[in-house]
Amino acid sequence: MSVFRNLVTVVLAVVLLSACQVLPPPDGEKEEPAGPEEAEVVFQPASFTDLPGWRDDRFLEALPAMRRSCSRLVQQPAERSLGPRGQAGTIADWRGPCEALRSQNFATDDELRRFLEANFRPFSVEGRPRQDGLFTGYYEAEIEASRTRGNGYDVPLHAPPDDLVTADLGAFDPELGGERLVGRVTEGAFQPYHSRAEIEEGALQGKSEVLLWGKDPVDVFFLHIQGSGVATLPDGRRQRIGFAASNGRSFYAIGRALIEEGAVSRNEASMQSIRQWLQDNPDRADALMRRNKRYIFFREIDEDGPIGAQGVPLTAGRSLAVDRDFLPLGVPLWLETNWPNSQAQLSRLMVAQDTGSAITGPVRGDFFWGSGEEAFERAGRMKEAGRYWILLPDAVAERVVAQGSVKPES
């Protein structure tokens, strides 16, 4: 088939030229600049006494998140490795602890803490070259929407279009596994998919189902940034929607543009101030939002909580988005950072359950705050230093150290 041959030719040419766009898994579209050097992750042995606040956490709050992740992990092939170079072991190594977590009844925080101490060992997660950890926040956006257009509901939320093509570059070169190229085939040529402006001007006509019609274009734009949300319908019912695909275009941080143009000060920049500026300047808002060419396509979700990249519902205050080039999804982490815009310590058990396009680096996380205005306030103001430890099953921990994949301190 000539179209397929042309697609393969284009993809291979892009690979050879190293010009392909690498698209991480969905959920969350926050942008941070990538580091200039190629980083690697190192697990350094630690003890539970090294973990700040370890004995003070409300561990039972994290149990639903751990059980959901464990249920997902044990469904996978036993021989599948977890983490870079298999540092987190295999699925088989996690089945015993996961089955115990799922089946045992834990009546108190202390019971669950003692279980973790008896079955896991902590390792400090560090980057090489060494870099400071950064932790931001995200939330589940809320919008007003309708299943029919009109009466003020005019902003479409599209399902993935029929002509959207995703090329898995790993099928052509195993070293490119996990990297994808998104576009469309036009007259036998593989091209970038339509930009946000082109889509808003009607490029999807006849190609994509409209799931819902939003009321406020600014709220819908923030829904695109967060990747998932809840729509309140005119009759009061609520419909959860989540990330299904994107147009493959690079994300553009409009907050950075507002700072550079002096519309928002760097010290005051937050999701709140950006949203306020857009609402206060409707005559300029559309043009600014269109600078972000990235466009998100959605799907309806009939489950509790937004679905993260691991494929399980997220838990407010316990789910963390990470860079899975360095950490596998589904593993428990002990986080030490600060509450948003505060010096108060925030230390607790989290579970790596999601990813995001700006969550890049060995010690980089996005804290899921849940939904509603309080979650929006905390997520929008969070940009804190911090670090985390990964909890590995005993058998994995012994093998990691014995195989020398943990590098000694210099």
TrEMBL record:
Signal peptide residue numbers: 1-24
Catalytic activity: Exolytic cleavage of the (1->4)-beta-glycosidic linkage between N-acetylmuramic acid (MurNAc) and N-acetylglucosamine (GlcNAc) residues in peptidoglycan, from either the reducing or the non-reducing ends of the peptidoglycan chains, with concomitant formation of a 1,6-anhydrobond in the MurNAc residue
InterPro entries, alphabetized: 3D_dom, MltA, MltA_B, RlpA-like_sf
Keywords attached to this entry: Cell wall biogenesis/degradation, Lyase, Signal
Matching Gene3D superfamilies: Barwin-like endoglucanases, RlpA-like domain
Matches recorded under CDD domains: mlta_B (cd14668), mltA_like_LT_A (cd14485)
Superkingdom, natural source: Bacteria
UniProt domain Lytic transglycosylase MltA: residue ranges: 142-299
Protein EC: 4.2.2.n1
SMART domains hit by this protein: MltA
Protein name (Swiss-Prot/TrEMBL): peptidoglycan lytic exotransglycosylase
